[in-house]
Amino acid sequence: MKLRKILIIEDEFHAGFLIKVNLETEGYEVILALSGEEGLEKARANAPDLITLDVLMPKMDGFQVLGTLKTDEGLNSVPVIMISVVNEIRKKRGLKMGAADYLLKPIDFDNLLNRIRRLEMGESPPD
Predict the structure, then answer these.
(1) Of 56, 65, 82, 123, which one is least surrounded by beta carbons within 10 A?
(2) Mean pLDDT of 40-60
(3) What confidence score (pLDDT) does residue 24 get?
(4) In angstroms, how far is the first alpha carbon of the chain from the final one?
(5) pTM of this prediction exceeds 0.90
(6) Dihedral-angle region of residue 7 (phi above 0 means left; psi in -120 to 50 means alpha; beta otherwise)
(7) What domains, with CATH codes, occur in the chain?
(8) What's the farthest any 2 CA atoms get from each other in the chain?
């Protein structure tokens, strides 16, 4: 399964832009949303194959966005990689809520690409 269209939900423009540029260099079509609300709108409008989701965002945090995604019939099967500076407790919460993977900031782009490729091959994320 090729995950060609990726939606990045990241409230820090520069962080989101860096992820976007790096993924586009690898041939992915990338859409950037700068808030949880905008991310949900763009997810519904663009039917992404994968979503990367920042946890700490104002108004609507990543867990609220993930909860909404997982209850939306059109989006609940889209794999979500949560990205944050936060700890193991939040990682467990995200995975329990249905995230496909959880990465810590600062993003190591080779690691992100490896995680995306593992999802494309149907493999589980490493611990």
Answers:
(1) 123
(2) 96
(3) 97
(4) 22
(5) yes
(6) beta
(7) 5-120 (3.40.50.2300)
(8) 35
